[in-house]
């Protein structure tokens, strides 16, 4: 089985778990996880860890894209730099404060996701 196919399985597992309350019972997810484990020859815990890692990486890519979009919009590299532009009078708060807070929140979320990825570090 190719690596891409396994990666798809991992993402499906995380997706199924994320739907656990609304879409699938935990029993159904557990049965599916068992099937994936048998099909791939991987231990269930490793499948879960890889699935979570893939989910976190995907989320991190989305956050990074939004950060880059906001930074490019204002010609900055971070919320800190944007704040400096406010202090120097180079940027009006009136029309930009929502983006400033959004950028700040995204940067915090990025840090959290990166720490979680470090914790799970799956080989």
Please describe what this structure looks like.
This protein has five helices and no strands. With 123 residues, the chain is mainly α. Helix 1 runs antiparallel to helix 2 (26-40), helix 1 (3-18) packs across helix 3 and helix 3 (44-74) packs antiparallel against helix 5. The chain starts with a helix and ends with a helix. The mean pLDDT is 83.
Characteristic key phrases:
single chain; 123 residues; mainly alpha; 5 helices; elongated
User: How far apart are the termini?
Assistant: 17 Å
N to C succession of SSEs? HHHHH
Strands, total number: 0
Give the helix/strand class: mainly alpha
Described by strand count, sense and barrel closure, the largest sheet is: none
Task: Label the overall shape.
Answer: elongated
In total, the number of domains comes to 1
Rg measurement, Å: 20 Å
Uncertain segments: none
Beta-strand percentage range: under 5%
